[in-house]
Each structure stands twice: as C-alpha cells, then as structure tokens.
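Provenance

Sequences were taken from public entries as deposited. Structures were produced by running a predictor on each sequence independently, with no templates supplied. The record for Transglycosylase SLT domain-containing protein from Alkalimarinus sediminis is shown for reference.
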Amino acid sequence: MLQSNAQKQENLNAQIIALFIIFTALLFTLTNTLSTHTTVIKHTQPSATHLNTQLDIEQQLAPQHTLSDPLNDAVDGYVIVVEEAFPFEQQIRRVANELEIDESLVYAVTKAESSFRAGVQSHAGAIGLMQVIAHAAGRDAYYRLHKKRETPTPEQLKDPYTNLQLGSTYLKLLEEHHFGHITDDKLKQMLVLAAYNWGPVNVKRKLLAKNPPRNAEEMKWVLWTKAPRETYSYVNKVLKYQTQFSQFDA
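Predicted structure for Transglycosylase SLT domain-containing protein:
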C-alpha cells in the first residue's frame, strides 16, 4: 500500500512537471509573438508618417485638382492619373517665346502661386494661375503690353493665357525696370521673385537701401533677416521648382 502511494505521488509529480513545461513553452511562444508584432509596429509607423510629410502641402489644399503637383506626378509615379505632365504647356511655351522669358521660371512661379489652378482667387484678390492682382501687377503689366492704362477684369485673369501673359510680363517688368542695374543674374532673379511676392517698393526700401547684398549667398541671409518668412520661403520654393522643371523638356 505504501509503495502504491509512492508511485502515485511520483506520477502526480511527473504530470505537474509536464504541465509546467507545456505552460512555459506556451508563455514563451506568446511573448515572442507579441514582441515580433510590436517590432513591426515600431518599424512601420514612422514610414507612414514619413510618407505623409512628403505630400505637397498645395496638393492637400487642392484635392480635386489632379495636376496639383505635375512634376512629381510624372517623375515619382503617384497613384493619381494625369493627362499631361506639364499643365498649360502650350500657353506657357507661347508666353515664354513671346516675352523671351525662361519657360521653367514661368512653370515654377505658376506652381508656387496656384498649383496650376486657373480659377483660384486669394483673399487678397490675386486671381488665376500666376495670382495676379488686377489693380496692381495686372494694371502695370497691361500697360507694358498694350500701352493702355486699363485694369484687367477677373474674367480676363481667369483665362489661362491672359493670366500667364500678364504674370510673366510683370516678372519682366520687375527684372528690367526695377532691378535692371543688378549685374549678378542669380541675385537679380532672387530680387525679382521677392518683389513678385512682397512688392518692389518693400524690396528696395528694406533689402537694398542699406548694405545691399552683392551676390546670391548674401541675398539668402538678407532675406532671412529682413524679409517676411513668407517671402523667404517663397523665393526658395520657386527656385527649387525652377531647378526641377528645367531638367525636363516640357
């Protein structure tokens, strides 16, 4: 009888050990699975965030416009289907040839101003592709083109060709009339872009009146320290777009 009880105790101990081993194995497997799943989450989440930060902010503002970022649509192969990589190609090329202005500059300013939305209008009254203000840049550009002191209508400014023509003419007006004395081409272009965004009077009074920049590198510092952040960002954005567009023949 004693021997039988001893055997029963041994069998019970063996069962307990076996159950402990099984439980330990299950616990190890579960822990490993959870750890692997957590690792996947840690490694995938930043990638999604990174992709979101790469989205063009102007594309987010124009979700209904499939050509809001034509260059990246064409090069990076976004899912968005576009009919053409370079919107308003014929009008921009025509304007560039007529005015003898860099085609990539027209593309870059148009991209920065409206993201290629012909009918857009800002709270300040800027209209169309190159965001022309009728009674300011629009009137000056119209006079340069037609030698008539008239203010273009909103309907005219919403016409792609007319808007591109007036906006590009104003760029030429800034370059030749306001900053024609600047001999450094890169510096001159930065001044033109700053004036297109901030106005030529502000640029002359606040950037050129005292210790004017002598080259593009000095101009970067002057923009950072003396111009509004919007103007600083605008100039750099247009220059970036121009470099991108100049790499392709539209």
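Confidence is low (pLDDT under 50) at residues 34-83.
The longest strand covers residues 126-127.
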